[in-house]
Specification:
2 domains; eight-stranded parallel beta barrel; TIM Barrel; Membrane-bound Lytic Murein Transglycosylase D, Chain A; 380 residues; five-stranded antiparallel beta sheet; 33% helix; alpha/beta; 19 strands; single chain; 12 helices
């Protein structure tokens, strides 16, 4: 169950109230300083999972910004391994000649094998640090380059013992909508014995206007792919005005539309493992908001003596604080917000959940995931 800290509470008073061990409660919730709680902070009170709870699949993208993933990131993947069906190292950037940028996994493939996680080869159309529509346009126009690219993908899948190929082509030209579907069909045909999954922009209609949306045909991609990951996050984003990153209303709207085009057993709901810290007042051109994990958000609220509020409309926590004469607002995730998403998965009968991305500590998420669901493990 979820408990919201109130004025006058201590870890020990909460533990006594629910007849649990205080030290165990602190360890499970990964509290940095158990002696100082924040008003509005959530704690997950441990309980025995229901053996009849529904089964879903879970995925986590794994991203790093160095030559190879740090040991701390490897440790986090291993720690969360029992609750992961898939692991997606991000990403192999596609080149115009059909080759792939190298990606040093630094042993992630062995962790996947040890924890019975399906590893995926993730390919993206990132070029010079941004998604490129001219890159994909050039690939879609050249069958020889497509063939070379597909062969390189299959070779990398074999080398890493990956059983899923995941395509994340974003910001495509609307004129390339059908060409993208045709490419996915070629890839699917060549990759027999492997699963094909695709990342999709969060659309609310087939005719939605906008560069992020127009190149993704939900119906046709849903027919080709074994499953899709819908990126239901980034309403609140680093360069935009402060708000919840994945407010429940817009998330529901996207998934409700998706279900009119794609079967629920093929849909994985995207979920952010992070929030943002904005400097106020927000103005276009301000420095981008800083990303932070839910664990970091709680620590920041404690340091700044800020009480946490909860917006029931968006189903997301937030707090304000002052630093160096400037006001800040932080929107993030907690046990209540992720529980709302879990309930939505149950209600809509979705395949599961996909996290962006491992590396942002959110201990309550994993506690509730285990409590509310059985996570499917594909037998080797």
């Amino acid at each position: 169950m979820i408990y919201v800290v109130k004025s006058g509470d201590s870890l020990y008073s909460i533990a006594n109230r629910f007849n649990v061990n205080a030290a165990n409660l602190a360890t499970l919730n990964e509290l940095k300083d158990p002696d100082v709680l924040v008003i509005g902070q959530t704690l997950v009170i441990p309980g025995a999972p229901d053996p009849s709870r529904p089964t879903i699949e879970s995925n986590a993208y794994v991203e790093w910004y160095t030559e190879r993933p740090a040991q701390s990131l490897l440790d986090e993947v291993k720690k969360r391994g029992p609750l992961l069906t898939y692991m997606m190292p991000f990403s192999y950037d596609v080149k115009r000649d059909g080759s792939l940028t190298p990606l040093n996994w630094n042993g992630l493939e062995q962790i996947a094998a040890d924890e019975n996680i399906i590893a995926a080869i993730v390919i993206s159309n990132i070029e010079d640090g941004a998604f490129s529509d001219t890159l994909t346009q050039s690939i879609f126009a050249d069958p020889a380059i497509q063939y070379k690219l597909i062969q390189n993908i299959l070779a990398e899948a074999k080398a890493k013992n990956a059983k899923d190929i995941h395509v994340d082509f974003e910001y495509l030209r609307k004129e390339d909508r059908q060409a993208y579907v045709d490419f996915l069909k070629k890839l699917k045909e060549a990759a027999k014995g492997l699963a094909l999954s695709v990342a999709l922009a969060p659309k609310t209609s087939a005719t939605q206007v906008g560069k992020w949306y127009e190149g993704h045909d939900y119906k046709q991609i849903g027919e080709v792919a074994d499953f899709v990951v819908i990126m239901t996050y980034e309403w609140g984003y680093s360069g935009g005005p402060p708000m919840a990153v994945s407010p429940i209303g817009p998330v529901r709207e996207v998934l409700t539309y998706a279900l009119t085009e794609i079967p629920g057993n093929k849909i994985m709901m995207g979920q952010n493992l992070y929030g943002y810290d904005w400097t106020l007042p927000f103005k276009v051109g301000n420095p981008n908001a800083k990303a932070l994990s839910p664990k970091q958000a709680i620590e920041l609220a404690r340091e700044r003596n800020a009480a946490i509020s909860y917006d029931t409309k968006s189903q997301a926590p937030y707090f304000n604080y002052w630093l160096d004469g400037k006001e800040h607002v932080v929107w993030f995730e907690d046990a209540r917000s992720i529980n709302a998403k879990f309930e939505l998965i149950k209600e809509l009968g979705l395949r599961g959940i996909s996290y962006w991305h491992i590396g942002f500590p959110f201990p309550q998420n994993w506690l509730l995931l285990n409590e509310l669901f059985q996570v499917k493990k594909v037998q080797s």
